Amino acid sequence: xxxxxxxSRRLLSIRRSLIQCRSVSSANTGRKAAVDRVxxxxxxxxxxxxxxxxxxxxxxxxxxxxxxxxxxxxxVVFPRCLEEVSSLAKVCHDHNLxxxxxxTGTGLEGGVGAxxxxxxxxxxxxxxxxxxxxxxxxxxxxPGVTRKTLNAYIRDTGLxxxxxxxxxxxxxxxxxxxxxxxxxxxxxxxxxxxxxxEVVLSxxxxxxTAGKGRRxxxxxxxxxxxxxxxxxxxxLGIITKTTLxxxxxxxxxxxxxxxxxxxxxxxxxxxxxxxxxxPIARIEFLDDVMIDACNKFSSLSYPxxxxxxxxxxxxxxxxxxxxxxxxxxxxxxEGSDFQWAQDAETRNRLWKARHDAWYxxxxxxxxxxxxxxxxxxxxxxxxxxxxxxxxxxxxxxxTGPIAGHVxxxxxxCLMVVDPNDPDELHRVHLFTERLARRALAMDGTxxxxxxxxxxxxxxxxxxxxxxAIQVMQGLKDSLDPKNLMxxxxxxxxxEL
Amino acid sequence: xxxxxxxxxKRVIDYAVKIRVKPDNSAVVTDGVKHSMNPFCEIAVEExxxxxEKKLVKEVVAVSCGPQQSQETIRTALAMGADRGIxxxxxxxxxxxxxxxxxxxxxAALAKKEEAQFIILGKQAIDDDCNQTGQMTAALLDxxxxxxxxxxxxxxDKVMVVREIDGGLETIRINTPAVLTADLRLNTPRYxxxxxIMKAKKKKIANVKPADLGVDLTSRLEVLxxxxxxxxxxxxxxxxxxxxxxxxxxxxxx
Lengths: 496, 254
What we know:
- The complex is a heterodimer.
- Chain A is an alpha+beta fold.
- Helix content of chain A is 39%, strand content 18%.
- Chain A has helices spanning 14-46, 55-60, 82-94, 147-153, 171-176, 184-187, 190-193, 225-229, 263-275, 288-298, 316-332, 344-355, 357-363, 382-395, 422-441, 457-464, 466-479, and strands spanning 51-52, 75-77, 99-102, 119-122, 129-133, 138-141, 159-160, 194-200, 206-208, 238-245, 247-248, 252-259, 282-286, 307-314, 336-341, 369-372, 375-376, 402-405, 410-417.
- The two termini of chain A are 19 Å apart.
- Helices cover 28% and strands 26% of the residues of chain B.
- Chain B has seven helices and eleven strands.
- The longest helix of chain B has 15 residues, at 39-53.
- The chains are: A alpha+beta, B alpha/beta.
- The interface between A and B is medium-sized, with 19 and 18 residues.
- Chain B: GO terms for molecular function: electron transfer activity.
């Protein structure tokens, strides 16, 4: 039973694992006793039905959509309102129990794994859409509200929330990970679109980062607490409300596809389109390996070369101008097969390849798992990093079709790997570290969208440097002195 | 031919809402609950607007029967591209007992008054799922009907309609004027965008009473009781798979 507590790591020697075994087991016993003591307190706060010890429930809340293995919490609670969240947090704080906030479990960096056990706060019962202000373009939502739910709710107001990370994620979860998406190039990421947060700190204190109920479009008032919590991945507090900036639904949309003879040509076109002032909404890059996978998966026949997928938003007249400018630019960079469409059905058909990319990549090697890398560099360095990365993939004998948000300099290698091949897993691990360091060497970041989570803490230290890490640690110590908020994530201190 | 299309739009509880039954089992809770245009009506409006954009018809008129709030639904249709609206005022007890028979009498009367060439409706409403209004309207007017349409094309003074039926797809050709009802795959309705919502505020909505159209609203149906689907009986929560197997064995199921 003892050995079952350790996640199997084939690279560790048996002796080391036995030593670790003993110290983990005593920490576990202490914590399990603490959990038993607080169960009745939990039940009296949020009701019998909202406290779960069931193995299946705990496992469901110990993993996300990353390749990190499941690390289930000791207990899952399902608070129904702010007061319950605060009371539950106080109990956890008094008994030194870790607190892990959980939205939809669609994260990609293992952020919800309970590495030190503890209490998972599943916030799905708090699902109200509050305070929609159409004329002010803002709305406040609770953590159980996902982005598709919000957009369906506000669809007849002519407004939408454009940040689109792919998954139908919790909006508060998106705030916690500073999510981004395919149309960040025009509408920004969560950092630019969260106006205010209601946060419960580890001791149960409730704060409003921009002041309760406030939603001015801009402010110079005090330290920017809102953006401190955006991207904090549950390590500073539990987000219980987020006030979001909304945008007008575009009058019209046009989608286009264009093939290029080289990565350089595709990226040059991207840079020139942006320089020409075209307010392009989405500009997505698929490399030849990715296009080939998409052709096979969706029975398409795109030329197997680097390809750009573009989307334009605006009025009819502005679209004509945008598309004409973009077409001219792509042609001057030896782009070919420029196709575009305006009606919904044809647009979806044109973009089908991009939409199915994740599945197309996995279909390349059935039975394998897919893992997405995520680095971001200044635009001018993008061709170089993609070329070097493709070379690395070949040399490492790895399958990694590339899809990227070129307008932001952000790209993903969709690594397709056999989970039963430890050598391949190891090669993937080394490859992703080299990729991250390559990006860092080019003035970039080790994570453009997915966050630091469990696996990129060392890279974060390399990226921002020890002094900035010290400041981050200082903030963490100040807001969460007992290190109860999602331990083992983002910052290196406080791991197993 | 007038080139005028009447489109019926119904205000219903939004499809994403969790429905609750009133404690007295008389009806479903509607107070404070989000309402929006019936999704099949959205498809009907989209088809009408597309016909106008192709210059195959000249005017799209959105019609809704209901209380004051039905005007919001008409405004959404206007924002999607309808030219003007007609709000047939029905409220209180009359509204609670309003059903396909009365609505089809209203639509028939309006079609004559407006000299409509087409009536396009959603195939059914997501609250009552009746799937009757289009068919009854056609019968009252003695017009041909193309229901469950997944494809519509005008051919001179006739209409070709591809219908979704149990066995697959059926193609029919009918004369005009005609009643069409929209099925799911007919089109993808556009969103009402902000600029269009602003423009829609200036379009006209006429107010009409059913009595003005000579329509009697008396219902031949009486709702006796509304119930939620049966709750699952005395279920037992088990925490582990072992528990589950043991309980199944005890119950003689395994």
